[in-house]
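User: Last request for today: this protein with pyridoxal-5'-phosphate, please.
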Amino acid sequence: MSARTDTDYTRSFAGVPGAQAGAVLEIDLAALAANYQVLSRRAGTAECAAVVKGDAYGLGADQVGPLLARLGCRTFFVAHVGEGIALRQSLRQTVGQDHDRAEIYVLHGILPGTEEDFLAHGLIPVLNTLEQLDLWARKSRAQISPTGASGAGASGTGALAAALHLDTGMNRLGLSADDAMALAAAPARLAGIDLRFLISHLACADQPGHAMNPEQRQLFDRLRAALPPAPASLANSSAIFLGSDYHYDLVRPGVALYGVNPTPAQANPMREVVRLWGKIIQVREIDTPQCVGYGATHRATGPRRIATVPVGYADGYLRSLSGQGMGRLAGISVPVVGRVSMDLITLDVTEAPLDAAHPGALVELIGGGGETIDAVAGRAGTIGYEIMTALGRRYHRRYLDATAAAGTEAVGDV
Ligand SMILES: *Cc1c(COP(=O)(O)O)cnc(C)c1O
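Assistant: Here's the final one, the structure of the complex with pyridoxal-5'-phosphate:
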């Protein structure tokens, strides 16, 4: 009989509040901190911001934001104003007085009626249209000079900060090239605005050879040349690896911080941040030909052992992993067989040691020596981003302490 190789995992969860949980999501904050440092170094002289939209890609912005702030990250990007308010509050609670040094940019910009939210929580809109620019500029000029006497041209104390998003080819958010040139011809529209950044966003940064990359960069340069000077920002995670031409003054990594490979054609330069284990709740021996799961899509033709694990599509274990997913039990690959249901998956554990597959044993579903998050995404027919942001709320979340990593972690060459 082989040794019970699952006992190490079992022991490592003993005594934690999640001991009774059906699945454990481990978030390695030390690896996340190391990833921030790798990206900062990669960015050379450019400042390294952090994109923490989507609750830090599902990992918890209330954990990730303060961690990165303590590591020296000063600039954060969120999508929604509500995310910005929540981030400001968690920074205030955890980082204390210094929280106000953190600049929080709201990528979706500003809608009429939300101006006071931006002011009250010290949020900076990324202005995406001329209408948003006019709205914020009016607000700013009214602040600087409530009587309207000397608003125009003001740029110092009291001017409201903003970034301006130039759309260079995605046709999603930001000023079109025509709008940018219209603004260049009427720069007084910017009066009252403290223009912190001109930004744009690449459509194909994860494909280093794609013609869109230099095209977007060149259009970005042309539009910037026509507009009043301001620091520039273009690079998401993948674009950091396109070279220093793409770094400008500030880089905006998101997914790479969280361990997803920003260079899909090459080995992952990032450390793994997310690991997911599901706990076996039942083992079924099949000794005659039988089906497994909804739709009877899987038919066992001989004696097999099927383990049932309480992780399903309601937990972000995507239904497209039906018959495709791969777990690992005691070092042995164990395929997901049959459909992923809402709360459960079934794995064929026949190849695993007999005494490893028992109720309570943990099956690696993401990372930890099993499949990487990128591999899981590939099996699901999607990208790491979607797996990350779908990670369920029913998992017991276990954050590994980051203190060991602060400043000194050996992260290897990238
Ligand atoms: C989401 C986002 C990012 C971060 O992208 P990653 O690919 O996750 O690094 C950067 N900039 C903008 C405008 C974004 O919307």
